[in-house]
Specification:
By secondary structure, the chain is of the alpha/beta class. It has helices at 12-26, 49-60, 82-92, 105-112, 128-142, 160-169, 188-196, 230-236, 278-297, and strands spanning 38-43, 64-69, 95-100, 117-122, 149-153, 175-179, 200-204, 216-219, 255-257. The strands form 2 sheets. The chain has a 5-stranded parallel beta sheet, covered by helices on one side. Helix 2 (49-60) crosses helix 9 (278-297). The chain is globular, with a radius of gyration of 19 Å. Mean pLDDT is 93; it is low at 302-306. The protein binds phosphoric acid mono(formamide)ester. The site of phosphoric acid mono(formamide)ester (CP) has 9 residues, from helix 2.
Length: 306
């Protein structure tokens, strides 16, 4: 595996391999060494977790990072093309982690540079490193990825994290409840994939309707930056909010996840319940991103203890 662009590119075995390496890193069984390696973090769109967790992952493995945050202070603002920018950064870095607003841009990047490319989010399309850390979080809380009932709530149309998550989980016989306003439903191409694989899903508009059936409720924010019409955004915002009072009848193993940032869709009174898992989920991102970098850069063989 050279690049990580889409969950659609990964087999079940490869997904489980990422889980295994992240677990070994977290448990201290292995400690990949990225000494003298440089990761370029090219973020054309804002980020807190993805950027900082990749930077933390490199530091924990004795590696270095170089960073671009927005294009204003780079030569992109002078008119340099995306391709020239990438080919230049590839001269300095051993791996490129890239986030842009343009769907397909990470795939395109991987086709024009020789170093590994990691998709850290391409528009409303994919966010595979988030999906892998989400699956790792699900394993840690549920003990398995198999046969779970997962509610996915929020902006299912533009939310790239949920597109990657649903594709990633579809190898593990899930049942999905898709919860969204009617105009933010899961895209047809993803639902068609699920039908082809005989994966059960239903579409709901209220977050608490079947909450007692869920193992995981994965909540996402409405993606303001993807709306052409801000009036539509205002309609969507606040159309669902998870509150502590909705959790009275949930299963004991139930967990609330969120890729974050949240902007009101989980009230803070949920934070102190045993069901809230979104901040530990963010922490899991460091272990998973250590695993991703070390798998793509091939630094594991020497470090796995027999
Ligand atoms: N989950 C996620 O992608 O967060 P950031 O946008 O802060 O990186």
């Amino acid at each position: 595996m050279k690049n990580l662009i889409s969950m659609r590119d990964l087999s079940k075995e490869e997904i489980l391999y990422f889980m295994e390496i992240a677990r070994k890193i977290e448990n201290g069984e292995i400690n990949p060494d990225m000494n003298r390696k440089v990761a370029a973090l090219m973020f054309y769109e804002p980020s807190t977790r993805t950027h900082f967790s990749f930077a933390t992952a490199m530091k924990k493995m004795s590696g270095q990072t170089i960073t671009m945050r927005g294009s204003v202070n780079s030569s992109v603002s002078k008119g340099e093309t995306f391709a020239d920018t990438l080919q230049t950064i590839a001269q300095y870095a051993d791996i490129i982690v890239i986030r842009t607003a343009v769907e397909g841009s990470a795939r395109y990047a991987s086709e024009i540079v020789d170093v590994p490319v990691v998709n850290a989010g391409d528009g409303a399309n994919q966010h595979p490193t988030q999906a892998l850390l989400d699956l790792y979080s699900i394993i840690k809380t549920q003990g398995t990825l198999e046969n779970l009932t997962i509610g996915v709530a929020g902006d299912l149309k533009f939310g790239r994290t949920v597109h990657s998550l649903v594709q990633a989980m579809s190898d593990f016989n899930p049942k999905f409840k898709f919860i969204s306003p009617s105009f933010l439903k899961m895209p047809s191409y993803i639902k068609d994939d699920l039908k082809e694989k005989n994966i059960e899903f239903e579409e709901l508009e209220e977050i608490d309707k079947k909450i007692d059936e869920l193992d995981i409720l994965y909540v996402t924010r409405v993606q303001k930056e993807r709306f052409a019409d801000l009036e539509d955004y205002e309609k969507a915002k606040g159309s669902y909010t998870l509150k502590k009072s909705m959790l009275d009848n949930v299963k004991d193993n139930f967990k609330v996840m969120h890729p974050l940032p949240r902007v009101g869709e989980i009230q803070t009174d949920v934070d102190d319940t045993k069901y809230a898992y979104y901040f530990p989920q963010a922490k899991n991102g460091v272990f998973m991103r250590q695993a991703i970098i070390s798998i793509l850069l091939g630094g594991l063989d020497e470090t796995i203890e027999s």
